[in-house]
């Protein structure tokens, strides 16, 4: 039980919700991280802000061998994603991207090696403001065919997607993160979208490289079992859309409704009363079965 109001608010914030909070990420520097890994973590932190925590002190831990320290960091900082950077002779310039902490346990971990790195400060172009939500683009068949690449795609989407927004404006689409899987490597590139005049209402779009850019290679993987992975993706019943009877949709999203009505007698249907629709005396007499007797004039 919480002993202070601050601890109570902290625990209430971490309680299960129908709509999850924006996922935060912790960036951890290993005990033997070099300058390249440190700069990578700083640039990823600059891209991820304000939904990230950067630990500047070195932490002597090995995520693949010991996951208890990562679970400790997760409980302490309220983060469900992590990026761990380290460097040694066997695995130089090493990054470990870790997954959704489900019930304080690590689900997926994928180890990536940095073969080429261009930092934000090396690209002398204008940058996007802090907190800009990026557009994520994935190119390459491996992201859909290979299970490890498919899990990596899911991790990258969770890591960089940012908060959910109710509406989008055209001027706000100014940041692109592009991931390409080709020949066993993953290429990460970031661009700023420039809207230029085109002589019509639709602007001409150009991409200007902004940084950082990374050439990555996949090394070790630690993936959750299929049963545990399905359990982590389970949604509460309150979020599932309720089925409505007699309503269907076509491939274009058009909604069709089926209405059940009793059989109607169209002869008794009440129409709008107009002078032009009034029946003449001859028509009325014909309907009655004969001519009505003429009225005699009184002398």
TrEMBL record:
The molecular function GO annotations come to:
rRNA binding
Point to the regions of Basic residues compositional bias: 270-279
Task: Name the family.
Answer: Belongs to the RPF2 family.
Q: Where is this region: Disordered?
A: 262-299
Q: Does the keyword Amino-acid biosynthesis apply?
A: no
Tell me which SMART domains the record gives. Answer: Brix
**Keywords in alphabetical order:** Nucleus
* Presence of the UniProt keyword Nucleus in the record: yes
Protein name, entry field: Ribosome production factor 2 homolog
Gene Ontology CC entries for this record: nucleolus
Q: Name one Pfam family in it.
A: Brix
User: Which organism encodes this protein?
Assistant: Chroicocephalus maculipennis (Brown-hooded gull)
From the record, give the transmembrane residue ranges: none
Compartments where found:
Nucleus, Nucleolus
Where in this chain does the record put each Brix domain?
Answer: 23-227
Q: Which BP terms from GO are recorded? A: maturation of LSU-rRNA from tricistronic rRNA transcript (SSU-rRNA, 5.8S rRNA, LSU-rRNA); ribosomal large subunit assembly
Gene symbol here is Rpf2
Q: What InterPro entries does this protein map onto?
A: Brix, Rpf2
């Amino acid at each position: 039980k919480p002993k202070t109001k601050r601890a109570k608010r902290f625990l209430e914030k971490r309680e299960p919700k129908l709509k999850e909070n924006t996922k935060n990420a912790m960036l951890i520097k290993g005990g033997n991280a070099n300058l390249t890994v440190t700069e990578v973590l700083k640039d990823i932190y600059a891209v991820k802000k304000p939904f990230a925590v950067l630990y500047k002190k070195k932490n002597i831990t090995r995520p693949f061998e010991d996951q208890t320290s990562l679970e400790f960091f997760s409980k302490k900082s309220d983060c469900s994603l992590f990026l761990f950077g380290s460097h040694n002779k066997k695995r130089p310039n090493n990054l470990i991207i870790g997954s959704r902490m489900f019930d304080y346990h690590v689900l997926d971990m994928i180890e990536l090696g940095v073969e080429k790195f261009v930092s934000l400060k090396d690209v002398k172009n204008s940058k996007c403001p802090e907190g800009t939500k990026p557009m994520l683009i994935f190119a390459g068949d491996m992201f859909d065919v290979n299970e490890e690449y498919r899990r990596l795609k899911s991790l990258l989407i969770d890591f960089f997607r940012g908060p959910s927004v109710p509406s989008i404006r055209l001027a706000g689409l100014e940041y692109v993160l592009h991931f390409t899987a080709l020949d066993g490597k993953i290429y990460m590139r970031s661009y700023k979208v420039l809207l230029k005049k085109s002589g019509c209402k639709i602007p001409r779009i150009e991409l200007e490289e902004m940084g950082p850019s990374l050439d990555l290679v996949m090394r070790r993987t630690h993936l959750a079992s299929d049963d545990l992975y399905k359990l982590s993706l389970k949604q509460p019943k309150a979020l599932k859309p309720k089925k409505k009877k007699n309503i269907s949709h076509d491939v274009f999203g058009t909604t069709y409704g089926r209405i059940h009505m009793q059989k109607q007698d169209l002869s008794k249907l009440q129409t709008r009363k107009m002078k032009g629709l009034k029946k003449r005396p001859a028509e009325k007499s014909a309907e009655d079965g004969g001519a009505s007797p003429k009225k005699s004039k009184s002398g």
